[in-house]
Amino acid sequence: MNWMEKELERLADASLERTLHADSRVSGFPGYTGRGERRLLNMSSNDYLGLSQHPAILEVMREALLTEGAGSGASRHVTGNLLPYGRLEEALADWQNCESALVFANGYMANSGVISALVSRGDVVFSDQLNHASIVDGIVLSRAEHARYRHNDMEHLRSLLHKYRDKRRKLIVTDAVFSMDGDQAPLRELVALKREYGAMLMVDEAHSGGIYGRRGEGLCHELELLNDVDIHMGTFSKSFGLYGAYICGSRTLIRWLVNKARPLIYSTALPPSLITGISKALSLVQEEHWRRERLQAASRLFRSSLRDAGFHIGTGSSPIVPLIVGDNDRALRFSKALEVEGIAAVAIRPPTVPDSTARIRFSLSTAHTDKELIDASLLIRNVGIQLGVLRP
Ligand SMILES: *Cc1c(COP(=O)(O)O)cnc(C)c1O
């Protein structure tokens, strides 16, 4: 297995090796992460609404653990479809105002399982170039033609829709908010194109569910496009503070997925205590609108502080704030310097993002205070000057 060492050396030389470091929970402080003896402001978590340590969620999970047991014991098609699943899926359909909902083990399995259940050889998937890796893997798994369009470029998408107009089934798929850039997909234009070319439309709300919409339903609701989105996907692993994912759509779609989505069929059901915790998180996401308002205020404040400092942070308005550094090694050094200053903010490098766009990806949380964000932006500015990303 010499080849492996050689390849790893090459990755390390290019500042592209990935390593794992140990983090620990700082009990009662969802906005922080423990690293060794230190407590760092966590600006690299997707716990947007600060729910990951919510006492009401922990309480129902503890109770469910005692009554329902630890693991589910089987896949949902066998004997793992315990009662909390049905209750959650009803509540999800009600929340999203759709006919039916289906829970998956996580977002990766939802995307890879749904896309490979909907299309196959002879079909085509139109996918934004910056879509999440789980979407890309779903397309590869499906064996359908992969028609990648330039990021948010509707003219390019239109030309591909035209080119592949004679394919059997056509699926357009996009992130609603892009995970590494924090900008939004042009959903209205996507709906218009899907109608014009008779395609299906799938929207991944991993970074917008819980954050947009009056009850946190997501961006499709905020834009009142729900009836035009055929496959609506979201996760419980980000703003819900837990783990898992859902698909919402027509009764027929869900019936199809129950029969065809292999990650659902050939994998064990989630632990019932988790499902119970998700149900509790779902009511909190709907009821506690202040968490969304606080998150929006935090995003505005942090974005304007970084802009005032002279950084270019893209066009989005979401709690995902990319600070593009370009060079891989410089992005790593930036992240390490921030850690010294008490901020956990990881460097995101290729292949997660395109070549020469290595970045620090900040993500904000309801749990962050104005003072923490202002202090952080001053420290970020100093590091930016030190490393020559900013001119003094
Ligand atoms: C995180 C993410 C996923 C995967 O969700 P998990 O539940 O973490 O597996 C899918 N799509 C997008 C856009 C994501 O950001």
From TrEMBL:
It is an enzyme of class 2 (transferase). Pfam families: Aminotran_1_2. Pathway: Cofactor biosynthesis; biotin biosynthesis. Gene3D superfamilies: Aspartate Aminotransferase, domain 1, Type I PLP-dependent aspartate aminotransferase-like (Major domain). Its cofactor is pyridoxal 5'-phosphate. GO terms for molecular function: 8-amino-7-oxononanoate synthase activity. Its EC number is 2.3.1.47. Belongs to the class-II pyridoxal-phosphate-dependent aminotransferase family. BioF subfamily. This is 8-amino-7-ketopelargonate synthase. The gene is bioF.
